[in-house]
Amino acid sequence: MTKLLQWLGSLALLGGIWAALMLDLVGLHAFSPSWYQVLWALPTYLLVTLGCYSLGVVGYRLATFNDCQAASLELQAQIREARADLARRGMKF
Amino acid sequence: MASAARKYSVLLPTYNERENLPLVVWLPVRSFEESGNEFEIIIIDDGSPDGTQEVAEQLIKIYGSDKILLRPRAKKLGLGTAYIHGMKHATGNFIIIMDADLSHHPKFIPEFIKTQKEGSFDIVSGTRYKGNGGVHGWDLKRKLISRGANFLTQVLLRPGASDLTGSFRLYRKEVLQKLMEKCVSKGYVFQMEMIVRARQLGYSIGEVPISFVDRVYGESKLGGNEIVSFLKGLLTLFATT
Ligand SMILES: Nc1nc2c(ncn2[C@@H]2O[C@H](COP(=O)(O)OP(=O)(O)OP(=O)(O)O)[C@@H](O)[C@H]2O)c(=O)[nH]1
Ligand SMILES: [Mg+2]
């Protein structure tokens, strides 16, 4: 099964449950009107939460992205070392 | 275990890397000689006009034609086919793929080898996004795009590897051969597809954190609509795998 189908499947399942609750297909009749208001807004809440979570994760990872200054300096030194050694062995640059 | 001797073939695709090539060869040769591992370095040059091949010839004189192999092609035919071409000439049972622009530091090769041995992995992938991995020489915008693209990839594909667009990897030769047959995309997406297909085929993947230092010499060959083609490729993999 492709990743797309997995996503569509999960969404359909969640959407189905949500619709069933909203339309009270299960026939529970146990919920107060204020419960339906919450339920009605639930998908939007979820979307916003997911969006914020994503932004947070990307922002955090951006802020903690290692800057390998030391690796760059080490490389510069090694470039000089390599050039000297190769020149000694007859390399013409 | 009476395992056959290990030999590592390093594939170096080059296009106008005259300045970088001597260093990209010198560094791994030194570390291979220190470790005593058997190796060969295969340079796949696509008719670079800057004299890359002349530099390669000099390196062959210095190190010997059994260690350094030049397997050029007449014109610039792209990275994917360069790997296939190089692999045809490889005699090692492990293949290391890296860029020849010094952004992939050869000092990580011993770590790749160690990780592969420890986990008996089919693939070991360098990662900029884990542990001590990282980048140098990128501005904030490029870092943001990189992080954002990586997050999106992780969410959509759940690949079980943290760096899909990197191209510093070690493969068992037969695994790379199999993957090359299966993968059809180009550019960054090609590297992503390799990992996704590897998972589908049940290959194991180890990871080594690497520092990616932006190229010092020469010019970038990718560019243009990188982001658009990345997104297209990502969605294609999302819908088809
Ligand atoms: N043989 C061959 N090598 C290529 C070709 N295109 C790129 N390369 C090499 O592939 C490696 C990666 O290419 P780069 O231009 O560094 O691409 P990149 O790493 O995505 O971009 P930057 O590092 O940001 O410049 C380098 O060693 C290039 O010389 C090609 O068409 N043929
Ligand atoms: Mg590069």
SSE topology:
The complex is a heterodimer of chains A (93) and B (241).
Chain A: H1 3-22, H2 33-63, H3 69-88
Chain B: E1 7-14, H1 21-35, E2 38-45, H2 52-63, E3 68-70, H3 79-88, E4 94-97, H4 109-119, E5 123-127, E6 134-136, H5 140-157, E7 169-172, H6 173-182, H7 187-200, E8 205-209, E9 211-213, H8 226-240
Helix pairs in contact in B: 5-8, 7-8
The structure holds guanosine-5'-triphosphate and magnesium ion.
Structural class of chain A: mainly alpha
**Strand percentage of chain A:** under 5%
Shape of chain A: rod-shaped
Outline the biggest β-sheet of chain A: none
Shape of chain B: globular
Give me the number of helical elements of chain A.
Answer: 3
State the distance separating the first and last CA atoms of chain B.
Answer: 37 Å
Number of strands of chain B: 9
Q: Which pair has the most extensive contact?
A: A-B, 28 and 38 residues
Please tally the helical runs of chain B, counting DSSP H or I stretches of 4 or more residues.
Answer: 8
Beta strand % of chain B: 15-25%
* Unreliable residue runs of chain B: none
Name the quaternary structure. heterodimer
GO molecular function, one term (chain B): dolichyl-phosphate beta-D-mannosyltransferase activity
Enzyme class (chain B): transferase
GO biological process, one term (chain B): protein O-linked glycosylation via mannose
Cofactor (chain B): Mn(2+); Mg(2+); Ca(2+)
Structure description:
- Chain B: Pathway: Protein modification; protein glycosylation.
- Chain B: Belongs to the glycosyltransferase 2 family.
- Chain B: InterPro entries: DPM1-like, Glyco_trans_2-like, Nucleotide-diphossugar_trans.
- The complex is a heterodimer of chains A (93) and B (241).
- Chain A is mainly α and 93 residues long.
- Chain A is built from three helices and no strands.
- The longest helix of chain A is centred in the middle third of the chain and has 31 residues.
- The two termini of chain A are 54 Å apart.
- Chain B has 241 residues and is α/β, with parallel strands linked by helices.
- Chain B is 44% helix and 18% strand.
- Chain B is built from eight helices and nine strands.
- In chain B, the strands form two sheets. A seven-stranded mixed beta sheet of chain B has the order 3-2-1-4-7-5-8.
- In chain B, β1, α1 and β2 form a beta-alpha-beta unit.
- The longest helix of chain B is centred in the middle third of the chain and has 18 residues.
- Chain B is globular.
- The mean pLDDT of chain B is 94.
- The chains are: A mainly alpha (93), B alpha/beta (241).
- Chains A and B meet through α2 and α3 of A and α1, α2, β6, α5 and β9 of B.
- The structure holds guanosine-5'-triphosphate and magnesium ion.
- Magnesium ion (MG) binds next to loops of chain B.
